[in-house]
Each structure stands twice: as structure tokens, then as C-alpha cells.
């Protein structure tokens, strides 16, 4: 009888030890998983950009050079591919991607537009995402020209805006808000017949109109990173 009691006691102790060990191991595993998830979340968080954060100072309007204060994209008024006047209200409460191009560009623009199609496709059903493609050659890119270009690339009305309008306003926004235009080395030798050269950058802007990232719009991997960062901003 005593032998059976001893065996029962030892078995119970062993069972308790195994249960406690399992619980302890699970707690440690869950804690490590939580730490890893939080670390990945911190690493995935897109930065907030100010003018001082940009390496290429030629992209920045002289009045903003070296500014480290919080930066917000300015107000604007342009005409979209449907001939409608639009302003910053189309981005209210949304995240968006901005770029500069022109419709007859035979260099980087076709690749950029192709990659922007990927961005639209990834978020075509999400009303909290819009795309703004600005022309650097408004003299050439009229409403009808932009409309044809938008249709050629499957732009969804209300989702992907092709913007034209006053040249000075287009350039000022690029130089003072997005930092994606640089003066041409020789006047009149910029993009199209402009006096500026646009970069291949896609600019990610959050719901507070802060810049959250720059991505090479000609590179598949960079645009994949953009799409990932957009998903992060939508969830956080």
C-alpha cells in the first residue's frame, strides 16, 4: 500500500513538474514572440521626414534648407484629368502617394507609371488611399492629354489623380513640400521644356500630410516596400 502511495506521489509530482514546465516554456515563448512582433513593428514604422533629413539638398527650396522642424505638405489647387478643380481636400483623412512626370516622357516615366499601376491595384478597394501624379510640363499636358494618359494606364476616377495647372504652383509644391524637383543644369533642358528635372521618387504622405517615405518608382522591390509601408500606415 505504501509502495503504491509512493508511486502515486512521485507520479503526481512529475506530472505537476511537467505541467509547470510546459506553462513556463509557453510563457517564455509567448513573451519572446511578443518581443519579436513589437520589434518588427518598430522596424516597419516608416520615418517622418523633415527637409534636414534629405541628403540631396538641391531638391529643397532654399528657404527650407536644413530645417528640422515638423514638415507638412502644403495646400494646392490643380485640375485633374476630368477637368475638375481639386485641392488638398481630396487627401483629407487619407494616405497618398505623389510623384512628378510628363506624358511624353520616354525615360523613367513609363517605368514609374507601370509601378504606380501596382500601387493602385494593391489598394483599389481602399477608399483611404489616393494617388497624385503631377505633370512637370503643364504647357503640354492639357486636360485632354492627361485624360487619355490616365485611361491608357487604367486610372480609377477618384483614386488616381493626374494633375495639371499653374506651372509655378506645381513646381513650388514639388520644391517646398515633396522635394522631388531639381533645377536643370542648362535652362530649357529639363523635363519636356521645363527648367527642372524630376526625380524617380514616389513620396508617401500620411493622413496628417507628413512625408513618411521616399521610394524609387522605377524599381519593383522599392515599390513593394512602399506598398508594405502603406499597409502599415493604414493599420496604425
Q: How are the secondary structure elements laid out?
A:
Layout: H1 2-44, E1 77-79, E2 85-87, E3 95-101, H2 109-122, E4 129-135, H3 143-152, E5 160-163, H4 167-178, E6 181-183, E7 196-198, E8 201-205, E9 211-216, H5 220-235
Parallel strand pairs: 3-4, 4-5
Antiparallel strand pairs: 1-2, 3-8, 6-7, 8-9
Helix pairs in contact: 2-5
Briefly say what this structure is.
The protein is an alpha/beta fold and 236 residues long.
For the record, the CATH class of the largest domain is Alpha Beta
Uncertain runs are 34-42
* Percentage of residues assigned to helices: 40-55%
Helix run count: 5
Strand order of the largest sheet: 5-4-3-8-9
CATH topology of the largest domain: Glutaredoxin
What would you call the structural class?
alpha/beta
Strand content: 15-25%
Q: Please name the fourth-level CATH homologous superfamily of the largest domain.
A: Glutaredoxin
Q: What does the main sheet amount to?
A: 5 strands, mixed
Please, could you describe this protein's structure?
- The chain has helices at residues 2-44, 109-122, 143-152, 167-178, 220-235; strands spanning 77-79, 85-87, 95-101, 129-135, 160-163, 181-183, 196-198, 201-205, 211-216.
- It is an alpha/beta fold.
- The protein folds into two domains: 1-44; 51-235, Glutaredoxin (3-Layer(aba) Sandwich).
- The strands form three sheets. Strands 5-4-3-8-9 form a five-stranded mixed β-sheet, with helices on both faces.
- A hairpin with a 5-residue loop joins strand 8 (201-205) and strand 9 (211-216).
- Helix 2 (109-122) packs parallel to helix 5.
- The protein is globular.
- The protein starts with a helix and ends with a helix.
- Mean pLDDT is 86; it is low at 34-42.
Amino acid at each position: 500500500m505504501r509502495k503504491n502511495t509512493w508511486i502515486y506521489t512521485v507520479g503526481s509530482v512529475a506530472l505537476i513538474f511537467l505541467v509547470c514546465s510546459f506553462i513556463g516554456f509557453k510563457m517564455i515563448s509567448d513573451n519572446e514572440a511578443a518581443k519579436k512582433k513589437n520589434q518588427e513593428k518598430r522596424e516597419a514604422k516608416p520615418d517622418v521626414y523633415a527637409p534636414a533629413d534629405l541628403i540631396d539638398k538641391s531638391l529643397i527650396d532654399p528657404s527650407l534648407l536644413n530645417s528640422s522642424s515638423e514638415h507638412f505638405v502644403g495646400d494646392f489647387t490643380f485640375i485633374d484629368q476630368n477637368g475638375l478643380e481639386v485641392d488638398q481636400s481630396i487627401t483629407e483623412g487619407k494616405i497618398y502617394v505623389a510623384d512628378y512626370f510628363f506624358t511624353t516622357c520616354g525615360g523613367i516615366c513609363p517605368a514609374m507609371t507601370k509601378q504606380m499601376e501596382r500601387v493602385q491595384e494593391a489598394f483599389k478597394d481602399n477608399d483611404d488611399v489616393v494617388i497624385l501624379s503631377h505633370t512637370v510640363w503643364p504647357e503640354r499636358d492639357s486636360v485632354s492629354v492627361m485624360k487619355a494618359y490616365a485611361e491608357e494606364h487604367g486610372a480609377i476616377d477618384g483614386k488616381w489623380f493626374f494633375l495639371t495647372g499653374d506651372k509655378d504652383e506645381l513646381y513650388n509644391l514639388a520644391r517646398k513640400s515633396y522635394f522631388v524637383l531639381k533645377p536643370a543644369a542648362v535652362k530649357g533642358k529639363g523635363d519636356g521644356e521645363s527648367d527642372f528635372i524630376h526625380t524617380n521618387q514616389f513620396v508617401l504622405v500620411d493622413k496628417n500630410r507628413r512625408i513618411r517615405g521616399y521610394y524609387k518608382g522605377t524599381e519593383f522591390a522599392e515599390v513593394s516596400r512602399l506598398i508594405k509601408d502603406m499597409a502599415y500606415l493604414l493599420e496604425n
